[in-house]
Amino acid sequence: MASKYLSQFSSPASKLVRFFERSRDRWKAKQKRLRQERKLLLNQTRAVEKSRGQWRGRAITAEERVQQLEGELAALKIRPCVACP
To answer: What are the φ/ψ torsions at residue 7 (nearest 5 degrees)?
Structure first.
């Protein structure tokens, strides 16, 4: 079957074999590079999402603390000053 397939080409079989092997090797190398890049990007995405979640938690905690302190400040402003003349 291979000889029947190769007879369709006008180039010598050895040249075709080298060409197809090189083509296959380039394709495999490209796919390997793309898999590695994909893995790096997925890891980076996970790290960014984790960091964003941590910062979001810190921001929510800080907002709650600000509201608590503003409430305390408002309560202190409303109270009459005992030591004032």
So the answer is: -70, -15
Chain segment 28-82, per-residue pLDDT in tens: 999 999 999 999 999 999 999 999 999 999 999 999 999 999 999 988 888 777 6
37 to each of 24, 25, 47, how far by Cα in Å? 20, 18, 15
pTM, rounded to two decimals: 0.59
Nearest CA-CA partner of 45 in 37, 57, 55: 37
Identity of the residue numbered 29 = A
Q: Could you tell me which residues come within 8 angstroms of residue 27 by beta carbon, excluding any fewer than 6 positions away?
A: none
Convert 49-61 to b/e letters by CB count within 10 Å (16 or more is b): eeeeeeeeeeeee
